[in-house]
Amino acid sequence: MNTETVSQVISQEDLLKHWQGHRALTRRVIQAFPEKDFFEFSVAGMRPFAKLTDELLAIAAPALRGIVKRDVQPFTEGSTQGFTTKAQYLEQWDKDTKDIDALWQQLSVEDFSESFNLFGQYEFPIIQNILYFIDNEIHHRGQGYVYLRALNIAPPFFWER
């Protein structure tokens, strides 16, 4: 535990609300895709949105579980292997959202300043790992926005989190 005084800009509860707001928006982006395009459409050689969603699902809940248990596991995609419908992705997304809420309650504010070796690759304070989860999701959701626009589908308003 870090014995230094920790200054706080945002509460632990507000950070979770912020993250879950992004997750809710990403869920609406998934929903906006036509079924076939979710799995197949891409632009300029980027991965289809289903593959980007695979990555997001491989990070959020599994990484937070690793942080809470202090169990360093390698990064692996594949929990969605065999998924053939958007509904399966959305169901997993919803399950992970509930898991994140439950795992979050096991963190103390002091935990955020402790270092954790995320996926055995990145040794940073836990707060930095969590901000990475959010930033990575925003990045990939932005790709989804580009795909939806290319498909002439209006994406959800980004500020409606």
From TrEMBL:
Single Gene Ontology MF annotation: metal ion binding
Residues engaged in binding a divalent metal cation: H140
Keyword line: Metal-binding
Family: Belongs to the DinB family.
InterPro entries: DinB, DinB/YfiT-like
Name of the molecule in the record: Uncharacterized damage-inducible protein DinB (Forms a four-helix bundle)
A Pfam family per the record: DinB
Gene3D superfamilies: dinb family like domain (1.20.120.450)
